[in-house]
Design goal:
The complex is a heterodimer of chains A (243) and B (154). The N and C termini of chain A lie far apart (43 Å). In chain A, helix 2 packs parallel to helix 10, helix 7 packs across helix 11 and helix 8 packs across helix 10. Chain A is built from 11 helices and no strands. Helix content of chain A is 71%, strand content 0%. Chain B has one domain. Chain B contains 8 helices and no strands. In chain B, helix 5 runs antiparallel to helix 6 and helix 6 crosses helix 7. The longest helix of chain B has 22 residues. Classes of the chains: A mainly alpha (243), B mainly alpha (154). At the A-B interface, helix 7, helix 8, helix 9, helix 10 and helix 11 of A face helix 1, helix 2, helix 7 and helix 8 of B.
Chain lengths: 243, 154
């Protein structure tokens, strides 16, 4: 299997062989898939649906558009409508927008279209759409950033947890979570896991590096450049603090 | 295992991406993990800025250092950290962590960290590659009950 056909997760494992190195630019993986024709496009669509369905669904569930249908149906309708369009991904690449921004913009257009379509078709029987649901694009983007950040972190944590488990570092991941999420000190970890303080720091670091690599991988795939990573993480922290 | 359940947990995980304490110490943790042979040696510690006022082990392991000795050593560490080459800066960061450990064990107060949480991270990072009595000192500091450690005296 060539590099360009390997799945992102497989690439990250390859990158992981050189230990603490960051993965190659994942947006490059998406672009490389375009050159593979329909097979590559299918992989891209699968990745987008797997990664962005949850935050898009959470967004619509909390918006005034939720009365249109179930969030799952709306997201599925959006994917079916847009991902099937010829040149949709190429236009994202040309836009230089983060993928999530491209998708939420498209999703908002889709939702507005859906409102108009249903109102035109069924105005007599669905009076609740007499008043069109509204959205402030800027507010919607901010809200989606917040939801996407949470979804991305959960996804990165799951990925890093699985990678740790695969490498025999499940305990390292548990210590990492206990320290950063649970607030346990290294001293507590040393006591609870029967290791020295230095070993606790080292083990947490092992898991932290894998979590960092997973986050970086997702941010790069979303269109962040390597130079922008620190700023992007800071921005996502601000978005989550606004919760 | 705890599930990453809410946005606050996600935020805490994102915060982990930022070095929680001295970046030089994080670099030392990585040196210890890789065993690259570039971690400061015991002799470098014995003869470095910790030896400014005399025998480093007598001063900071045995506990004969005075407040003035601590202050002088911190000053030398900070100068080396600001002006030294890469390995000297790492030696300075490690020496500062050792001074913190000695201050906690022998004076029951923080020296450079602004919180017990920061001190905990600093000591754990320092302990990753230390050997001999320096390691024992740092490990001992990590086991001093938090409630007995006073905040840094300005």
């Amino acid at each position: 299997m060539s590099d360009t056909t390997a799945q992102p997760s497989q690439q990250s494992k390859s990158a992981g062989q050189s230990r603490d190195s960051f993965p190659m630019t994942q947006r490059g993986w998406l672009v490389a898939q375009l050159a593979q024709g329909p097979t590559g496009l299918s992989r891209i669509n699968g990745y987008i649906m797997q990664t962005y369905a949850e935050p898009l669904g959470n967004y619509v569930a909390g918006s005034t558009f939720r009365s249109l249908s179930t969030s799952a149906d709306l997201v599925a309708g959006f994917f079916a409508s847009r991902l099937a369009q010829e040149g949709y991904i190429e236009r994202w690449v040309a836009s230089n927008l983060p993928l999530r921004r491209w998708l939420i913009n498209g999703f908002l257009f889709f939702l507005q279209e859906e409102v108009r379509r249903r109102r035109n078709e069924r105005a007599e029987t669905m009076p609740e759409f007499a008043t069109e649901p509204t959205c402030q694009a800027e507010t919607a983007v901010e809200e989606f950033d917040r939801l996407w950040a949470a979804s991305m972190v959960r996804s990165a944590a799951n990925s890093a947890r699985e990678r740790c488990a695969g490498e025999g570092f499940s305990v390292h991941w548990q210590m990492f979570e206990n320290h950063f999420v649970g607030g346990a000190s290294y001293s507590d970890l040393a006591t609870n896991f029967t290791v020295t303080g230095g070993q606790a720091a080292s083990m947490v670091r092992t898991a932290a590096i894998r979590f960092r690599q997973a986050v970086v991988e997702l941010l790069l795939k979303d269109g962040t450049t390597e130079d922008e990573l620190d700023d992007e993480v800071a921005r996502l922290m601000r978005a989550l603090r606004a919760d | 295992m705890k599930q990453i359940s809410d946005h606050y947990d996600c935020l805490k995980l994102l915060v982990s991406l930022n070095d929680e304490t001295d970046p030089l110490l994080v670099r030392l943790v990585d040196r210890a993990r890789r065993a690259d042979g570039l971690f400061p040696t015991c002799s470098a510690l014995d003869e470095g800025p910790l030896a400014t006022s005399g025998n480093a082990r007598d001063l900071y392991i045995t506990g004969s250092a005075s407040d003035a000795d601590f202050a002088s050593a911190v000053k030398h560490c900070e100068t080396l950290r600001a002006n030294g080459n890469a390995s000297q800066r790492e030696l300075a960061a490690l020496s500062l962590a050792i001074l913190e450990a000695s201050s906690i064990v022998h004076r029951k107060r923080l020296l450079i960290s602004t919180s017990t949480q920061e001190a905990d991270a600093r000591l754990a990072a320092a302990a990753t590659g230390l050997t001999s009595e320096w390691e024992k000192l740092v490990q001992a500091a990590m086991h001093v009950p938090v409630q007995t450690v006073l905040s840094r005296v300005a």
